């Protein structure tokens, strides 16, 4: 049963440390306003030493919150401290979305859903490919590798500067993943249907190598989860040879959809207006 404070005004939050630069309040605030829903979405700074206590208070029947988003550096801890974790977040070892249901605190991870929904919305059919090449093996690559595997892509190649990190992810997610060092990148792109940059190459104006995207399939999609700048070096290179591209901003917007629907009871749309609102803030 929900307590009276909760039913009075649905509230959700994003918790992280630091939290100042989170764009989640802007996204959820826009949806609350667009749909004319009562409720609020708060930004909460929680230091690492306070996080376990924060989770305990969320489990309390008196908590004013229906749930919330969890961001850096608490995603791993959230997955361990929730009462229930779904298989997606459990395998990732990281949760970004929490909600209370039947007196229990539940956790999931919506990054993979966001990645897939963004590609679906811009290039339906993007997943009818034999080979995907994913550059990077950091925290940001995990949900994407999991999603590509679950989508049934026959070959998912993980290319990373430190090949051991790529191998760890292959061990975690299993077939159809394969690990490689950077020297394999050019030949792997030959005939590939999807390239995803999850590394920090090109972020904030840093340099990125020129890749032979012209050797990919003619209808191959090039996507980058970096969205500052929006037109990363990889997106620019692909555009120059006329390949379809998908920038990283859409993933940020789409990963927010399931949480909003759960807390506020309305499935929100990712619109051009929302995209522009966030773009103006970048
Ligand atoms: P995140 O959690 O955001 O993914 P991360 O764990 O620091 O961040 O990972 C950054 C990714 O960018 C890694 O795959 C990293 O490669 P290493 O695992 O070898 O560190 C990759 N990366 C960063 N700088 C790079 C560079 N100059 N050349 C190639 N890869 C780089």
What does this structure look like?
With 282 residues, this protein is of the alpha/beta class. The protein has 2 domains: 4-110 and 256-279, Leucine Dehydrogenase, chain A, domain 1 (Rossmann fold, 3-Layer(aba) Sandwich), CATH 3.40.50.10860; 112-250, NAD(P)-binding Rossmann-like Domain (Rossmann fold, 3-Layer(aba) Sandwich). It contains 13 helices and 12 strands. The strands form 2 sheets. It has a 6-stranded mixed sheet, sandwiched between helices. The structure holds 2'-monophosphoadenosine-5'-diphosphate (ATR). 2'-monophosphoadenosine-5'-diphosphate binds at residues 136-141, 160-162, 165, 198-201.
Task: Describe how the helices and strands are arranged.
Blueprint: H1 4-8, E1 11-16, H2 24-34, E2 40-45, H3 51-59, E3 67-70, H4 75-81, E4 84-85, H5 87-92, E5 97-101, E6 104-108, H6 111-122, E7 131-135, H7 139-150, E8 155-159, H8 163-173, E9 177-180, H9 185-189, E10 194-197, E11 221-224, H10 233-240, E12 245-246, H11 249-254, H12 257-264, H13 272-279
The structure holds 2'-monophosphoadenosine-5'-diphosphate.
The site of 2'-monophosphoadenosine-5'-diphosphate has 14 residues, from α7.
